[in-house]
Please model this.
Amino acid sequence: MTVKVTLPDQESTELLARQIVAALPDLPAGWLVLLEGELGSGKSTFARAVLREYGYPGPVPSPTYTLVEPYSLPGFDAYHIDLYRIADGGELEFLGWSDLENGLRLVEWPARVPQLYAGSDLLLTLKYADQGRLAELSAQSERGEELIRNLPGLSTSYRP
Ligand SMILES: Nc1ncnc2c1ncn2[C@@H]1O[C@H](COP(=O)(O)OP(=O)(O)O)[C@@H](O)[C@H]1O
Ligand SMILES: [Mg+2]
Model:
């Protein structure tokens, strides 16, 4: 299933993130969320809002240079990952990817590693639209489907 949501401003990107957290398990271990969209489309804004909603109080820097920013949350780990500088899937090993698999993974530029899509749960695509953004959220797994069905208040969306 795919839902489209118009996001006229940064607050609505953050609201979508909070709605998705509300539909995710309290311990989202192993969930893989892919974040697509051009530079500045709001991928890091979304990831930051997810981490905040799970209670992370500190700064959430962009992982552009570190590639992986780890977050220790009550009962689980989360990883904010940026694959922009990754040339192909073979380099995931260098990132220690297999050590991240039990965490909630929020991945920017996932298209660098096409193999990631098969094992993912949700794909969020952000596009520029007027001054705001258009989000397309699509399920990539059974539990992703269930999450989208349980999303509250998608009044601005349609379900094709
Ligand atoms: N729905 C939206 N409408 C307009 N601006 C937005 C929206 N969501 C986020 N922004 C703004 O767009 C920029 C997104 O930056 P960032 O999240 O770092 O993008 P990315 O990680 O995709 O490169 C920020 O300046 C943020 O304030
Ligand atoms: Mg970013």
